[in-house]
Specification:
Elements: H1 8-42, E1 48-51, E2 68-73, H2 76-88, E3 93-97, E4 110-116, H3 125-134, E5 136-147, H4 153-170, H5 178-184, E6 187-195, E7 200-207
Parallel strand pairs: 1-2, 1-4, 2-3, 4-5
Antiparallel strand pairs: 5-7, 6-7
Helix pairs in contact: 1-2
Bound molecules: S-adenosylmethionine.
Length: about 210
């Protein structure tokens, strides 16, 4: 295994360890930047929703009330915090420990499949997108809010330099090309937004069938 790659158990251990500090560490960024993108993306959610790599459930306040929500994550400690958030919000959310690369759901189980700030961390993002597409119903959709490589060279080179450190600390790749991944996964993009030179992307896509 190269130093720029971690295994699933290592990623799970990182997030189990970080979980109780996660919301506090992210708070400023959430309020200044991330929240409004979460809100915008998730206003498009409908029907039975699966959120993969749900973390501490930071998206939960933004789902339309009529959605029924299931969430998965590698880290049981992150899931415990998501459960507490769901209870505070009085939302019923079915949470399960599960690897996005190997979802234990039947084909075509959900109307909406969501991933936010998570494709950076999963070991094989193409496989994860393939699994997300598999469990999406024929008239369903994938909603993604992901960070990735900047279109401006100087920043992108910094992202390349910093990525090995971020991978070791958080399992997080700063320099993935999210659009290319979505296209390679055979998903049809029907709406998208790009922010901060492509470092943040909102994507609504449907599986080609
Ligand atoms: C940066 S956090 C993002 C959490 C949440 N999606 C959000 O928007 O705040 C990354 C999350 O991905 C989870 N994760 C990483 N690899 C995963 C995998 N292969 N399957 C499921 N969850 C995974 C981690 O446990 C962590 O909770």
């Amino acid at each position: 295994m190269s130093r720029s790659t971690l295994g699933a158990q290592e990623i799970k251990a990182i997030y189990d360890r970080l979980a109780t500090q996660y919301d506090r560490r992210e708070r400023l960024l959430e309020w200044l930047l991330l929240r409004r993108h979460r809100r915008k993306l998730l206003s498009r959610a409908r029907g039975e929703v699966l959120e993969v790599a749900i973390g501490t459930g930071l998206n939960l306040p933004f789902y339309p009330p009529e959605c029924s929500i299931s969430g998965t994550d590698l880290s049981p400690v992150m899931l415990q915090l998501a459960q507490r958030r769901a209870e505070r919000l009085r939302r019923v959310v079915r949470l399960q420990e599960m690897d996005t690369q190997q979802l234990a759901f039947a084909d075509e189980s959900f109307d909406t499949v969501v991933s936010t700030l998570a494709l950076c961390t999963v070991i094989d993002p193409l496989r994860a997108l393939g699994e997300m597409a598999r469990v999406t119903r024929p008239q369903g959709q994938l909603l993604l809010f992901e960070h990735g490589r900047c279109r401006y060279g100087t920043i992108a080179r910094w992202q390349d330099r910093l990525t090995p450190h971020q991978v070791l600390r958080f399992g997080c790749h700063l320099n993935r090309n999210v659009l290319a991944l979505v296209q390679a996964a055979d998903l049809q993009i029907i709406w998208r937004e790009s922010h901060l030179g492509g470092m943040l992307r909102l994507i609504q896509a449907i599986p080609f069938r």
